[in-house]
Specification:
Number of domains: 2
Strand content: under 5%
Order of helices and strands: HHHHHHHHHH
GO molecular function, one term: RNA binding
Shape: globular
GO biological process, one term: RNA modification
């Protein structure tokens, strides 16, 4: 899926362009438009945000969270999923409130790595922070455990879910049949 066709990208693009406090917002957004899956583009935006002091402006935290989630998504779906964890580690030192999309993208990075070890850590973190009942996080957890071959852990997540939707049922049916 092309990043520029994502609704999250367009929302991020709109917020970044309509926030007056951000210096050169068009430059950051245009980098993602021109190179939606480029490693160097995401690294360039990451370094620009860290060195420019954007994180010190509390009034633009929502716009930055959307931009960060877009960068996490690019990293986790791309060929360098470890960068998603490195990027998240850098972001933990700043006053940002992450959302369920942040953790679902990190869980997808675990799938891309084909390792549930970082996913287990994110799972514990979502419990600690109260995101374990968010539908995006639950579905990403289920997907991660199924993709990494941990059916018992996937069943545990499935049974903990307060509501089962068609996506979660499909994951479980496909895995149990195969």
């Amino acid at each position: 899926m092309n990043l520029s066709s994502s609704p999250l990208f367009f929302f991020t693009f709109f917020i970044v362009f309509n926030t007056n406090q951000i210096k050169q917002p068009g430059h950051l957004a245009s980098i993602l438009v021109k190179n939606p899956t480029s490693r160097s583009a995401t690294q360039q935006i990451h370094s620009h945000i860290l060195t420019s002091g954007f994180l010190l402006h509390h009034s633009i935290s929502n716009a930055l969270l959307l931009l960060f989630n877009t960068l996490l998504r690019c990293s986790s779906f791309g060929p360098f999923p470890r960068e998603a964890f490195t990027f998240y580690k850098h972001l933990q030192h700043f006053p940002l409130s992450f959302d369920s999309f942040t953790y679902s993208f990190l869980l997808h990075a675990s799938i891309t790595l084909k390792s549930n070890n970082p996913g287990n850590q994110i799972h514990a973190l979502t419990h600690k922070l109260g995101f374990h009942f968010h539908v995006y996080v639950q579905t990403a957890l289920l997907n991660m455990y199924v993709a990494c071959g941990s059916l018992l852990l996937a069943l545990h997540v499935f049974y903990e879910m307060p509501d089962w939707n068609s996506v979660t049922w499909n994951f479980m049916i496909i895995e149990l049949v195969s």
